[in-house]
Design goal:
275 residues, alpha+beta, six-stranded mixed beta sheet, two-stranded antiparallel ribbon, 10 strands, globular
Length: 275
């Protein structure tokens, strides 16, 4: 079985670190990184050189992607574009040659543009990745009150949770690779914490009890509720009972929250609905 494209990319990034950067190569521009990455991807097994492109249009993305692998779609809306199997955005924070303001512009470009473009690619067959090359230690400092790398990771999790994040950074005179796998891997969404689950379960049970006690009645005052309830309040509660029986879940939680806000407590004596 051949390599997955994300494994090919990981291999190429490690080769870039060990063979070039740790060998004394000084990357001055982003094109240096993309060029060497292109070269090392070609040396990986089972890579079709005819499908590799730099700074290419991608189907479904408004803009260009730094490095793409995939077949050309000649029927794309505007011009021929790539149907991606691998899409990589890169950003370099070089050791020399850039001012702090230029680094800041590039950093904000990552969180406001690069990751959003990757988030537009939702093909199950496509591997997406953001590569950050930091020779300055820029990502270890603060952006506002948060660590810059943490800011990028949170933005990745929010707008492109299916994308891998790779960081090539200089530490102690040695270039190292950090890989942050996708936040979203196709697994089921994790259940809420125990405290939140116990709270919502209790609230749903109280809501069911309340709705079942008032929904069948034609005279709400007989259930210990205020005789000042208007007729439309009783009809509304009949609907609540129906919803609780048919679709317990988020809607029921919202119903419970609404009842809480309006001063009604199941099993706590008369209540009054504010209409």
């Amino acid at each position: 079985m051949g390599w997955r494209m994300i494994d090919v990319l990981h291999y190429a990034i490690r080769k870039l670190a060990t063979d070039r950067l740790n060998g004394g190569y000084e990357a001055l521009l982003e094109a240096d990184i993309s060029g060497w990455l292109f070269h090392y991807i070609l040396t990986a097994p089972d890579v079709d050189a005819n499908k590799l492109h730099l700074d290419a249009r991608v189907v479904g993305v408004n803009g260009f992607i730094d490095l793409v692998s995939g077949p050309v779609d000649y029927d794309a809306e505007k011009k021929p574009a790539i149907g991606p199997r691998l899409a990589v955005e890169m950003k370099l924070f070089p050791r020399v040659g850039f001012t702090p303001q230029q680094h800041r512009v590039h950093f904000e470009h990552v969180i406001n543009d690069d990751l959003r473009k990757l988030g537009c690619i939702r093909l199950p067959s496509c591997s997406c990745a953001q590569l950050l090359v930091d020779g300055k230690g820029y990502l270890r400092a603060l952006y506002g009150k948060a660590n810059r790398l943490d800011v990028v990771t949170r933005q990745r999790d929010r707008v492109a949770p299916h994308a891998d994040l790779f960081v090539l950074h200089l530490s102690g005179g040695v270039w190292r690779v950090v890989h942050k796998p996708p936040a979203q891997t196709g697994r089921a969404t994790p259940r809420p914490s125990g405290l939140w689950r116990r709270h919502t379960d209790s609230l749903m049970q109280r809501t069911r009890s309340f709705c079942s006690s008032i929904a069948p009645t034609a005279q709400p005052c007989q259930q210990g509720l205020s005789h000042r309830w208007p007729q439309r309040a009783h009809a509304h509660c009949s609907d609540l009972g129906k919803y609780c029986g048919e679709a317990p879940g988020l809607r029921e939680r919202r119903i419970g929250w609404n009842l809480e806000r309006q001063g009604i407590r199941a099993g706590r004596g008369p209540g009054r609905l504010k209409c």
